[in-house]
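can u do me a favor
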């Protein structure tokens, strides 16, 4: 069972058919929609502000999602957050893909269907447009993304989570 911890009277909440790996950590004011998955070693910490996730979001192995006072994390539906990525006090729009070991910093917004390439660093306050691919340090626009490009990852993780027996069987009733 994942580490679930209440902080200042706020505990993680999740929807139906979510999968939380046994060594994932979810702390504080977190709300997830249906069909989300949080994979091995991922940490979601919401102790001073909130993390709000839509449906069908996957947070892959060793990713870290954290907020800051006055800076919640908002993750819309069908977002994929790659292995080792850091998502900090920012907004990820529907269908976005954050690549492996990428970093998205405070106040940044990653547009619908956009791709942040592996290892890229999206600086604080940056606006990544819809269906754009950004890469590098600091991240810059490299080209337009195919409209389905990022969604393929979200769909793939919907399938993978079923291999691990979701259907709520690995989760206690939501508090």
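np, heres the sequence
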């Amino acid at each position: 069972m994942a580490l679930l911890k209440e902080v200042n009277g706020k505990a993680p909440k999740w929807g139906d058919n979510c999968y939380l790996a046994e060594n994932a950590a979810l702390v504080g004011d977190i709300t997830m929609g249906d069909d989300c998955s949080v994979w091995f070693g991922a940490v979601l910490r919401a102790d001073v502000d909130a993390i709000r996730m839509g449906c069908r979001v996957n947070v892959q192995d060793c990713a870290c999602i954290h907020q800051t006072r006055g800076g919640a994390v908002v993750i819309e539906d069908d977002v994929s957050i790659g292995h080792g990525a850091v998502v900090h006090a920012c907004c990820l729009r529907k269908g976005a893909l954050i690549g492996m070991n990428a970093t998205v910093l405070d106040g940044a917004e990653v547009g619908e269907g956009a791709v942040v390439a592996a290892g890229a660093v999206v600086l604080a306050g940056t606006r990544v447009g819809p269906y754009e691919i950004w890469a590098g340090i600091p991240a810059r626009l490299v080209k337009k993304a195919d409209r389905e490009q990022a969604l393929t990852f979200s769909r793939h993780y919907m399938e993978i989570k079923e291999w691990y027996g979701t259907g709520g069987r690995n989760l206690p009733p939501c508090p």
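The two ends are 15 Å apart (CA to CA). hope that helps!!
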